[in-house]
Design goal:
This protein is mostly helical. It has one domain. It has four helices and no strands. The protein is globular. The termini are far apart.
Length: 92
C-alpha cells in the first residue's frame, strides 16, 4: 500500500486512511463502494484512487503482527493531519 500512494502529497490517500487502513478492509469493501465512500468525503478522482487502492490490496495478502494496532494508530494520525491542515488553511 505504501508504494501505491504518496501520503505526503495526496490528501485523498490520507482521507482514505481515516476509514480504510488495511488491505483486507480494502478488499472487502471493493472499488465501487470505496469510490462512493470517498466521493461522500469530496475526494476528487475518487474512482481512480479506489481502483488503485484495491489493486494494491489485492497484491498484498500477508498479514503482520500488530497490523490492527498499527491501523488504529494510522487512522488517528490521518485524522490529526487533516485537522491540522484545516487549521493551517484557516490561519493563512
Amino acid at each position: 500500500m505504501e508504494r501505491a500512494f504518496d501520503y505526503a502529497a495526496s490528501k485523498a490517500a490520507v482521507i482514505m486512511l481515516t476509514g480504510y487502513r488495511t488491505p483486507a478492509a480494502l478488499r472487502r469493501v471493493g472499488p465501487n463502494r470505496l469510490a462512493t465512500w470517498l466521493k461522500n468525503r469530496e475526494v476528487r478522482g475518487a474512482q481512480a484512487l479506489a481502483d488503485a487502492a484495491v489493486a494494491a490490496a489485492q497484491a498484498q495478502h500477508t498479514g503482520v503482527a500488530g497490523e490492527a494496532t498499527a491501523a488504529a494508530v494510522a487512522s488517528t494520525l490521518a485524522k490529526t493531519v487533516l485537522a491540522l491542515n484545516e487549521e493551517i488553511a484557516g490561519i493563512a
